[in-house]
Design goal:
alpha/beta; Cobalt-precorrin-4 Transmethylase, domain 1; Methyltransferase, Cobalt-precorrin-4 Transmethylase, Domain 2; 10 helices; 10 strands; 32% helix
Length: 271
């Protein structure tokens, strides 16, 4: 006996970072045919843009309350989205950037709905990391690249490879264990700087990066000394980019094991 799949579905999709120009054709089509579109109004331009595609909008931004843990806000958002699906709607959750990066609620909503037998999936979007590589001219596979959410980098033990790039996301709220702050705290940023000085000298040049929200805007790429970070302007979308401290070092033992010839370019590199 066939079990009928419940009506209602969820598609979590990414809007990209730069409004309009990074929305895929498929994502636009999914937005247009949805019964309900949930979104976060991170800018006053976004609602107007989405309204032209589908007027059935629900803004999740009001779920954020000052002084309230973001976990409570996330749970309320998920409850609203899941309720819309289980009442038979084909729902789109339109997320800034990539829907699965630095965004736990869409993952959890998909997991819960699948467990209940509903169709739920995620479609990739252009995230801030893709914009960063393009704007700063970084190939993460050339020098290597480690990346962490800034608070997670502080809360847990990590080993940094200073021959590659280090990216710390959401640096403005680094060290926030309450999950309630939305503004930068220079005391916590100073602790982060002290932590980073295990690997980098105080005058090491770092980059504060912010992707452009609109095509007519320029991205931010301010270069400062590491010790100047606590006094810098840090916004919710600021990413800390730490360039390599020194070049990669050749693993001569590995080259020997691999049988790399003496005249191979790898053998000619310093280190």
């Amino acid at each position: 006996m066939l079990v009928e799949q419940p009506r209602g579905s969820l598609m979590c999709l990414g809007l990209g970072i730069t409004l309009g120009s990074q929305l895929t054709i498929l994502a636009r089509e999914q937005l247009a045919v949805a019964d309900v579109v949930f979104f976060h109004s991170n800018s006053h331009y976004l609602a107007g843009f989405l309204q032209q595609i589908n007027p059935n909008l629900v803004d999740l931004q009001p779920f954020y309350q000052a002084g309230q843990s973001r976990l409570e806000s996330y749970q309320a958002m998920m409850d609203a989205v899941i309720a819309a699906v289980t009442t038979g709607n084909n729902v789109v959750w339109a997320c800034y950037g990539h829907p699965g990066i630095a965004s736990w609620p869409p993952h959890e909503a998909i997991r819960q709905l699948k467990a209940l037998g509903y169709q739920a999936q995620m479609a990739a979007g252009i995230g801030a990391d893709a914009c960063l590589y393009a704007d700063l001219g970084i190939d993460p596979m050339a020098e290597g690249c480690q990346q962490f959410e800034a608070s997670q980098f502080m809360f847990y033990q990590h080993t940094v490879d200073v021959s590659g790039y280090l990216l710390l996301w959401q640096v403005a709220i680094a060290g926030d264990f309450s999950l309630a702050r939305l503004e930068s705290d220079s005391r916590y940023i100073q602790i982060l700087v002290q932590h980073l000085q295990q690997w980098y000298p105080p005058d090491h040049q770092i980059i504060l990066y912010e992707a452009a929200d609109l095509p007519i805007w320029q991205h931010r790429a301010d270069t400062i000394a590491l010790t100047s970070l606590p006094q810098a302007t840090l916004n919710q979308i600021t990413t800390l980019v730490i360039p390599p401290l020194h070049a990669k070092k050749i693993n001569h033992n590995m080259l020997d094991q691999l049988g790399v010839p003496a005249d191979h370019p790898l053998r000619q590199k310093a280190g």
